[in-house]
Protein 1
Amino acid sequence: MSKKSNRSLSKGKAKAKKQPIERFWETKTLDEMTRPEWESLCDGCAKCCLHKFIDDEDTTDETELMPTTHIAEGEQMNYSNIACHLLNDKSCQCSKYEQRTVLVPDCVQLTQENLDDVFFMPPSCTYRRLKEGRGMPSWHPLLHNGKKSAMHQAGMSVRGKIIKDDDVELEDFEDYIVLWPLHDID
Ligand code: SF4
Ligand code: SF4
């Protein structure tokens, strides 16, 4: 018996009709979106998996590397190119997505309920863009059949730019502060 490849078996099938995407982000507020719609807004850039540091005059040597949940007026958020050790640096996906909040307690999980935390996200983050009324960027995977290539090509993801936090001493973070995560286009 000859073995057919999946490619030859699918040859006779009618070509799937390409469905126009429903631009729900233009007609619904973030609060009105269904959970799948909300989840699909994440572009997968992984900038939120970078370590960030806030310049705070009250910081002491003891509190310097402690997590914080707020930023005060006048304080500045600095991004580093140090990424969480659980990040897959090629796909820009979390390698332990289901267990992430247990394995990395300060992993920020943005939901419709804690949308006020969106200021922790970089300016190019789709949630932040939509919250600030700046719309969907042209490179977003939702506008490219779910593919991330336009985003990588536009330099909007972390791919090729990071070092993992288990490869550096976090107290040397100042050596790793970078500006590119603050970059946004469109
Ligand atoms: S920065 Fe925003 S859009 Fe990018 S991966 Fe994180 S949550 Fe998703
Ligand atoms: S646990 Fe996963 S989602 Fe959270 S910061 Fe690390 S790589 Fe990113």
Protein 2
Amino acid sequence: MLKQLSIPFAATAALMLASCGQGDVLRADNAVVKVSPVEGNPSVAYMDLHGGRVEVDLVGVTSDDVVRLEMHETTEEDGMAMMKPMKSVNILPGAKVKMEPGGKHLMLWGVSETAIKRGSLQFKLIYSNDDRILIDARIEKPTPAGTETTEAGEESDAE
Ligand SMILES: [Cu+2]
């Protein structure tokens, strides 16, 4: 009879372990760069930001393959989509903040041709708690309508 007492206790302990499990790791994924189809125009990048165990701000993003990089937010004012620079992105513990079309995004000027050929570039995310995270982003080239872009002849990446 007494043994039954340990069952609910064990269940509670397991639940507590699950709630502070792998979910609460400061990280980012699903990073993609969309190269502008118009030469000279900025390209745009999106990713998902995942919060860790403590609240932080993403205070900067850099990349060796980009001349200039800004964090932007698209907001709607009087039915007009407006884009303005953001100084930081607040990320609560365990939260997911999406950088996506129509919302927060990265604006990139001068993405290197080498990176475009390679099909990827690396971002360095800088957080308010001094954490640094490196993340690889897939580069999507624009595909102009009516143009056949077959890249079967290109060497496949070694990764
Ligand atoms: Cu923008």
Protein 3
Amino acid sequence: MVKLRCYLRTLLLIAIGLSWFSGAMADLSDGLVAYYPFNGNAQDESGNGHHGTVYGAILVNDRFENIDSAYHFDGINDFIQISDSPSLRVTTFTISAWIYQPSYDGTVRWRWI
Ligand SMILES: [Ca+2]
């Protein structure tokens, strides 16, 4: 089983794309293994069927205030689990996501990683 775990107080948003990276101007869908826009669920919308099962994380608004379009992980045993698959056993990959990290000074901390 491949598990995605997050123990930080974060909002995880939009997309996690695993792809072979062949250049700075590559087509982002070329080699895409999984895509999670979190449109009310953790379904893989790449067409490859790597749907996630949510444990503990709750749907919240994303950075554009779209309803139920991001997941909040409270830092205690929350994760999204994806079943193992040969297509997920890659040695080189890229993961991209928008993450919100609460700050103590009130600044917005949406970050693209
Ligand atoms: Ca929890």
